[in-house]
Amino acid sequence: MALNEMVNELNYSLKEAKTVQSLDEKRNIIARKYLSSIEEKLRSALPEDKKEIGLEITRYKEEIERVYDEHLERVLKAITENEINNYKYNSFLPGNNIPRGNSHVLHQVAEEIAEFLNKIGFNIVDGNEVVEEKYNFTNLNIPKDHPARSSHDSFFIKTDKQKMLRTHATSTSAMKLEEFAEQDDIRIASFGNVFRKDTEDATHSHQFMQIDLFWVSEDISFANLKWLIRSLCQHLFGDSTKIRLRPSYFPFTEPSFEVDIARKYLNKENGKEEYGEWIEVLGCGILHDNVIEAAGINSKQKVGLAAGIGIERIAMLKYGIDDIREFYDNQKEFLDQFIKE
Amino acid sequence: MKILRSVLERYCPEISKIEDEKIYDTLNTLGIEVSSYESTPEIEKLCVAKVVQLDVHPNNPNLTICSLQYDNKRYSVVCGANNVLLNNYVAFAMPGCILPGGKKIKEREIDGVISEGMICSVSEVIEDKDYICEYDEQNIIIRKDGRDFYNTERALKWSGLADTIFEIEIPSNRPDLNSMLVVAKEIYGFLNLSHDSNILLEDDKKTSNRYYSMDSKINYFKTVSVDNVEIEPSPTEIRTALMHLGIKPINNIVDITNYVTYLTGIPTHAYDLDKISGMIRPEIVLDRAYLKTLLDKDITLLDEDIIIVDSENNIVSAAGIVGSHRSSIQENTKKVIFEIASFNPEIIKNTAQRVGIETNASEFFAKGVPSFMCLVAEKEIKSLLSKNIIGHNLTSERVVVDLKENKKKGFANFNWQLVQRIIGNYQDQKRIKEIMTKQGFSMKKAINMNMDFCAPSWRIDVNHPKEFIEEIMKYQDINTIVDKNPSALVYNPADNFIKKYKYIESVFQKAGFNEVKTYSLESSENPVFDSEIYPNKKIEISNSVSINRQFLKTSNLNQLLEVAKKNYSRKNYQLGIYSISKLTHNLDNYKNVVSAICYGDLKLKSWDKFYTTYDFFLLKGIVQEISRYLDKEVTFDIDDFVNFDFVHKKSYVKVFYNKKKIGNIFTLSPEMCLKYNLPKNTAFMELFLDEIERNKNLYTPVKKYPKATKDFSIEINSLRIYEKEVKRRVLEIQYVKDIEVIDYIKNDNNSWLTFRIVLQHNNGTISKDQINVVESKVKKILEVNNIIIR
Questions:
Q1: Interval A147-165: pLDDT, tens
Q2: Using CA atoms, how far apart are residues B667 and B680, in angstroms rounded to an integer?
Q3: pTM
Q4: How large is the ipTM?
Q5: Which of A38, A209, A340, B763 is close enough to A311 for a disulfide, judged by CB 3.0 to 4.6 Å?
Q6: CA B155, B161, B164: angle at the middle one, nearest 5?
Q7: Chain A residue closest to B422 (CA)?
């Protein structure tokens, strides 16, 4: 009778408990209430009765444990459910940000051009930004009275007026041409900063980057130059890019051309793919005999192809940037946009 | 330089059938870059109407009531101009027409008579009113002929005011293109137009295909005198052409000289012969000369300048720049002398700059238009005189300085095979000959299968075989030449400088650093100038653009600081940037260098947990990581005696490679951080890359048996206990090869120390259990010494 009474009371009491701690506390209170009287009875009982009383205590304890376990299971389940329901984080949020940097967009574009040239055997070389006037102008067939040679257009070194900051990467190519003059087939592309005394605005900077290439060999021609330029433009702007050459004038090439490209775009009005406007991208030509001779190469035997590419111009077209100063302003918001995905 | 479609059409009528866009494409294909072209749009409700009746205004005798017939309707319009004539055609602005400038035409009452619109003058229908002459302001547009345009709203086209203006850029080797006639000739030849061209650049046995030298101070000087001249406004076509070119028409004589200047590129000048004593001739100033110009300015001419004087040695003009006030053409002028000359462009340019007068003429002379064009200018003047100035007599012609022929130039002899070789494709010789002839070139077979190529006299830029080949390519349209894959496309392994330092970049990029691009020139403000770290002398540019770009940089610190400052002010509270660039330390040499600056803590996006601290130690870590790619070990040396105001005294290390110093890492001094408004942990590093050698074989296997490491962080009162009790005993434990302090922080209450032990087995890879044994032994040592493990 008392056992059933205890089980009922225990069930009633434990039903309210929500944590393991309160479960324990309530169990202890009920256990003490019922077991203390029986334990007292055990102490004062005769030796022959002790066994039976002992068994009774065991029965009580077993019953308490059984009821307790039932409730414990319920409480633990509730706690787990509660934890899951109140989980603090949304698993659909993105993972932790592992920092990642990138190369400057100008270097990325330079690399892209260099990769193409490298593939067809061009050596990408590098040279000093301070050059002798001879390599910047005289060897490149630029006459003494050419406006570019004045201090109005180019930077000269104060202590040594024969030296200047190169106005085109062609000066480095011309130096390297002299170095490689012995080779049958010379393919060089020089890359780096060049300087011109321009007033800074959205499209002009006193410093910018160029890649300049020379290919001097016996059996190459204008048709090959056209192939080279078309392939390069398609490498940079996609296979559907069209090129157009316009005759122009550079002192170090004869004939000289300026190259325009036209890219395909989707005309939203009629839903058709169309070619956009012609945009000027680079200059090229066949090296002037005087330039080849200045490097100690026989101009009667060899033909030289040349092209000069402004990296900023390509980057501006490729990524739709309309102010050249963005490249040198180095705002993190700008830099971060060119992290490769 | 402006090119007018109307002028092209006048000299090559077939051009009128060609659309503007085709002309634009043609000019571009010919290497004449068109920067823009614009045509005048017609004005709505401005129409060509016929004057059918004229009545005097009943209330105002100065006004006329004109009845205009347009579209089978009659309009009665009150007009104040004097030149309205019966049965002529006029430009009639109907009610509702909006004229340039916003004036809206309505029916309105003028002195009691209703006027149903307006008869317009040039000044009323032209947008740009700067170049309108007095005549066009006072007189209406009126023509006898209007049949083709009658009853249409194409009044501007009819009156000759509609035109297309092509703005072209001329390559520096083609001064001849400053002549509109040459441009017309180029289009005519390239588009293979028919022969009825009026271009006066036609072959003439005396002048064609000769190279005339341009080396003298005076290359050519000729005068043409006429009398019985009536000074009046120029005909409409010349007036409108000049207006479109941006020149205000003055009178028939002055306008002819200006018009011919644009046609031929040769500035011509006219003087009043009655105000000159005898004939005129050019002279070089010996000492100095004074002139009162027609612009009412007194100028002084010096040695070497060229002047024009008359028989009594009175100066009549500063050659090629400006005429004297005295001899200018006035309304009462009857006798005129024209000057046609070619001077040295440099002399004219210098004189004009010095006296501070830059006229249209001086600008044209400075362009160096071929002297041959003088002969064309003379023909043009004569032709315009006979067309437009009725009753004049040609009284005398005098060549003072004649053209000098240079037989060595404008001519080349070479083989047809060279053409094939340079172009790389088969070229149709016959067709090319046909096109080239149209452009004025001549080709004749010479001995040994060679050809004689001869350029027209105005093409002073064509002398060398390759220059002739360029012309051949140009006139047959370079874009039709098929491109060809080079036969020699063999792969030969090539260097790529751009990839040389890729491995260094990858280390920075993995740590979240962005590459930046900085200028090579900077101001003298750079704190590192003259400091011991960079002892080199700064190199100055003689003609810098601004004081901020005056010196070649010897360190990237200044520029990176500027970038960091800009970014911090834009609330980028964490930044890591690097730059691989060149530093010029002396004129013959440069150094490749990698520089980096960083500050702030990188926090994770969603929670406020710290991820990386961008400080001195990150930069040191990056250098350690770079060192893994190198041939030899990189070591650091702490310098406690550093004494530069931009360096934090307690945070400066020198970096060594192969016993050579290759760079520095330091935290910026608090003053510098304050000056640039940057956080206090801002750190900077710079490594010279030319000294270090990359380990070619990056895939070297791990040496013998690998090492394991284990870090312990302890609370400790003094370093002495660590040195005496811990370090010595730990080293005694089996497998422990090394022990080092990697972090030590001390504050007022306690101090923390982190040390790392290096474990290695002598003949195998150390096992997990062995590491556990070592770990428990270390813990025991620490417990014995009452040291708390964190």
A1: 778 878 889 988 888 899 9
A2: 8
A3: 0.77
A4: 0.77
A5: A209
A6: 115
A7: A221
